[in-house]
Design brief:
Length: about 425
């Protein structure tokens, strides 16, 4: 995507002072529910879960869910929220709003933010993989849950990242651990699954977990967050940097912070593949669109980010055509190339049609899991839709030009054109 260039005297991508590239992703790491940005509904749900679980545990009951599933876009805080929930469940000095204190031995044992480590007897985090290592890792986890936790609560936490990568056999092996009246409760184990593609998780596993959806953060909440993080980190970031990082982040906090760090260092941006795909669609380049889609590991994640670019383009397109009052405009710098946007999208109506097609394709994928249909929508239907819109616009312009020429010469239109 052609964007407003960020000037830099550093074409080799090396920091001017030779120091490490600014990393703002570690500067924002929520430790309590109150610090989580843009997930109000989900935070409300997990607070209620923690309240119920702590009350039941204090009464000597195990009658509360022992399996949680966090799903949503990459970089929006699934694992971070899982750790906050884990700490809140075992905290010895719980704060108002069921926020963990972060200072007691139990909180530190579950996750120590200073060292980035957990006490292996209290909490374990694994990143799921594919292949034979899958079953071996699951076997190790099941053995691990048999070890008594040293925490006063007696609970153990298991967090499995990218759980959709687990084979069907590996997921089936966990079913016994997730049964309502079975092993998880007897062992005092809380299982937390994190995934960007909940559709690939076995239905039997999903039915035995409580789902929580992590959504992309809106632009209105992302921009103030980036400014606050940059200020706390001592990084100078002007409005253009923030708006550009918000745009390219596509709702991902981690992505937006990465872009803001690159801009602060004066480095050229490493743009996401979803923008390459968006540009190919605007240009009507089906071959490039197919190649970009094929290179990405998660077509669903790519298509979801593509939808966010269409949504942002819609807002900016309205501003380009002065349909939004100046005082309400959100994008101060021209992030899009105006000519590409106007020529590629033709008008607001074709853009909205694209959003409807893409939204429908994403919903169908979530219901059926058919990746071929999603790919066809992204790489073929959108390009054809915009191509037809451009053709119709060209015909309208030709007719208007012909009509204008006829008026200038004083000639009458043909009988069929009257």
């Amino acid at each position: 995507m052609t964007a407003k260039k960020t000037t830099t005297s550093n074409p080799d991508n090396v920091p001017v002072d030779g120091s490490k590239v600014t990393d703002l992703t570690t500067a924002y790491r929520p430790r309590t529910f109150d610090e989580v940005v843009g997930q109000d509904a989900t935070v409300k749900g997990v607070r209620a879960y923690v309240a119920k679980a702590r009350a039941a545990h204090a009464a000597g009951s195990t009658n509360y869910p022992h399996g949680l599933l966090f799903s949503g876009e990459s970089g929006c805080g699934k694992t971070t929220l899982a750790y906050i929930v884990a700490r809140a469940l075992v905290c010895e000095n719980i704060q108002p709003g069921y926020n963990p204190c972060g200072e007691c031995d139990s909180c530190v044992a579950v996750y120590d933010y200073e060292t980035g480590e957990s006490n292996p007897l209290c909490a374990k985090r694994v990143i799921a993989s594919t292949g034979t290592a899958n079953m071996s890792a699951v076997g190790d986890l099941i053995s691990y849950t048999s070890v008594r936790s040293p925490l006063p609560s007696g609970l153990k936490i298991v967090i499995i990242d990218e759980c959709h990568r687990m084979s069907a056999a590996a997921q089936d092996a966990l079913l016994g651990e997730l049964e309502d009246e079975n092993k998880a409760r007897a062992k005092g184990t809380i299982w937390m699954f994190c995934t960007t593609e909940a559709k690939k998780v076995q239905p039997a596993v999903m039915n035995r977990t409580t789902p929580y959806v992590i959504k992309g953060v809106s632009d209105e909440k992302m921009a103030p967050l980036l400014r606050r993080v940059a200020e706390q980190a001592g990084v100078t970031a002007d409005d253009q940097m923030v708006d550009t990082a918000v745009f390219y982040g596509g709702g991902s906090i981690r992505g937006a912070l990465q872009y803001l760090g690159q801009l602060a260092d004066g480095l050229p941006l490493a743009l996401p593949k979803s923008l390459d795909l968006f540009e190919a669609i605007l240009r009507g380049d089906m071959l490039s669109a197919v190649n970009v889609y094929a290179q990405d590991e998660s077509g669903f994640e790519l298509a979801r980010r593509l939808y966010s670019h269409f949504r942002q383009a819609r807002d900016f397109f309205l501003e380009l055509n002065d349909r939004v009052p100046a005082e309400e405009r959100r994008y101060k710098p021209p992030i899009y190339d105006k000519d590409l946007l106007r020529h590629g999208l033709v008008g607001i109506e074709p853009l909205l049609d694209c959003m409807c097609v893409l939204s429908s394709a994403l919903l169908d994928y979530m219901k059926t899991g058919c990746s071929e249909a999603l790919e066809a929508s992204v790489t073929v239907r959108l390009i054809r839709l915009l191509g037809e819109a451009r053709k119709a616009a060209a015909q309208r312009r030709a007719k208007a030009a012909e009509a204008g020429s006829s008026r200038e010469t004083g000639s009458l239109p043909a009988p069929g054109e009257r």
